[in-house]
């Protein structure tokens, strides 16, 4: 399951594009409509990063959630997903993800609702 911020237009648009492009075999839901406690995570974490939750309950966040989504999509996407799980690409992906996530309110489609609270930037 992919859990994202449904209040953020940038996030919603990104997820919609990824679903169309990748066609992953998974459920996708905004955190605002998910029972986060039963999924093994918190609102604070869901506000901070996109989440990938496995059927076994393992929670991956941020760039690693994107890597898991790519792995699930199969084909050539799985190769890219696998590469993103390996250092040093994992470290680079994490840095890029944080820059995008921390500035999503400033990106195309971003709104004030996309902004993270100051203590989470």
What would a concise description of this structure say?
It holds the Pfam family DCC1-like. With 121 residues, the chain is α+β, with helices and mostly antiparallel strands.
Give the arrangement of secondary structure elements.
Elements: E1 2-4, H1 9-22, E2 28-30, H2 36-39, H3 43-48, E3 51-53, E4 59-61, H4 63-73, H5 75-83, H6 89-102
Parallel strand pairs: 1-2
Antiparallel strand pairs: 1-3, 3-4
Helix pairs in contact: 4-5
Keywords for this structure?
single chain; 121 residues; alpha+beta; 4-stranded mixed β-sheet; 6 helices; 48% helix
* Secondary structure: helix percent: 40-55%
Main β-sheet, spatial strand arrangement: 2-1-3-4
Query: Which consecutive residue ranges, at least 5 long each, have pLDDT under 50?
Result: none
Overall tally of structural domains: 1
Largest sheet composition: 4 strands, mixed
How many strand elements? 4
Q: Roughly what is the average pLDDT, rounded to an integer?
A: 90
Order of helices and strands: EHEHHEEHHH
The 3D shape can be described as globular
Total number of helices:
6
What separation lies between the terminal Cα atoms?
Answer: 25 Å
Strand content: 5-15%
Derived from helix and strand composition plus strand pairing, the structural class reads: alpha+beta
**If you compute it from the alpha carbons, what radius of gyration comes out, rounded to the nearest whole angstrom?**
14 Å
What is the quaternary state of this protein? Answer: single chain
